[in-house]
Structure formats: C-alpha cells, structure tokens
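Run log // design_07
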C-alpha cells in the first residue's frame, strides 16, 4: 500500500502533550471537495479487550459495496481512555493494519468524529492529516455540539450539528425512523461529500457498511 506518513510525532505522551499535538496539527485539516469520485472506501474500527487493541479495516468497492480487502492488527492498548483523545488510543494500532492492505483505499471512514470535536481535531482528522488522505468520521453519539432544528424521520434527512454557533458536522438519518448518525469532515473533503458518501454506503442499516463490517471484524477472535 502506498500511503505514507506526512507528519510524525510521539504517541507515548501525557494528556496535555496530546492536546498540544492536536492544536499543532489542526491547521493542516483541509475541507476541500473530493478531487475524484472514490472507487473504494475503507471502514476503520478498533475494539478494546482488557489490555489488547484490535484494529480492523474493511475496504469496499463503490458503488457495489463488495469487500475487496481486509486487515487486522493486534497490539497492547497504547493510551488510556480520555474523551477527546481517541486518536492517541486508536491510531497506533490502525497504522500497521493499513500497511497490510494490498491497495490504497481512496477514502477512509472512521467510527468516530472528525471536526465534530472540542478542538476540531477528532480521530478522522488526525488520521487524515497524518496520511494526507480523504477521511470522514461517522459516529453513533455526540461528543460536542447540539443539533440545530428538527430532524425528519426519513432516510437522507439532515440538520446541522452546531457548537458555539459554528456548524461542525451533520446529524444524518441513514434509515427511516431510526436514530441518526453524526457525520463530520476528517480531511480533504467537504461536509456534503461526507454526507453523500455516508448515504451511498448505508443501503440497509443505520451504520454505513464500511464501519459496520470493520466493527464486526474488530471483534472477531
């Protein structure tokens, strides 16, 4: 796989140092339109059991959503659970898993937040900036901000997720009459790009297929 790190920094750091790293890298995030229509998307998920982290990646073809590649990497949990610092817990196991892929995915989709983060630099942003690849976050719960408006019950309905008056993501219904997901930009795409891709990857379930399948794989023995 041809992805390579564009930025490096230590991972064995204190909470304060981790926040400083986020603050230094956040200016690198680019919210620009996708340059080409993606043909593959990689779902990324990490499961924690005791002291072991298992990162899983499932690459799907677009628009068929057929599985074209998978990868798993296990290691010791590298960082404690601290809200807002998920990337320091999950990036170290994800990077070696990405190295196992036979081809470079066009887009990375994480089961986490991107811009919808207290410092506007969630895991999707961190991973996207480190690798300089288009990335988005699709989360199941809100980390920061609040929905603005009333969300309709039908699939495809969306309203802004706003923090301190600033739109940071979208509350998106991916299935009729089902709780929404929270979509935000990670890197090198617009929020509209991220929403469209999320819907294209959600034909049946609330959770998009890339991260849904990655989650299942991350919990496998």
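design_07 sequence
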């Amino acid at each position: 796989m041809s992805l390579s790190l564009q930025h490096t920094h230590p991972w064995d750091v204190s909470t304060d140092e981790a926040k400083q790293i986020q603050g230094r890298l956040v200016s690198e995030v680019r919210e620009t339109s996708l340059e080409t229509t993606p043909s593959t998307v990689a779902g990324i998920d990490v499961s924690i059991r005791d002291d072991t982290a298992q990162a899983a990646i499932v690459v799907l073809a677009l628009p068929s959503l057929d599985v074209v590649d998978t990868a798993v990497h296990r290691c010791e949990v590298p960082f404690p659970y601290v809200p807002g610092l998920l990337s320091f817990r999950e990036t170290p196991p994800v990077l070696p898993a990405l190295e196992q892929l036979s081809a470079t995915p066009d887009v990375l989709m994480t089961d986490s937040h991107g811009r919808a983060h207290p410092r506007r630099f969630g895991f999707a942003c961190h991973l996207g900036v480190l690798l300089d690849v288009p990335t988005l976050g699709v989360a199941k719960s809100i980390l920061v901000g609040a929905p603005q408006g009333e969300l309709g019950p039908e699939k495809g309905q969306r309203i802004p997720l706003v923090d301190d008056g600033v739109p940071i993501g979208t509350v998106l219904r991916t299935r009729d009459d089902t709780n929404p997901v929270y979509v935000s930009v990670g890197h090198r795409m617009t929020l509209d790009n991220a929403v469209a891709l999320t819907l294209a990857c959600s034909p049946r379930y609330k959770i998009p297929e890339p991260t849904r399948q990655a989650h299942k794989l991350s919990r496998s023995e």
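The two ends are 25 Å apart (CA to CA).
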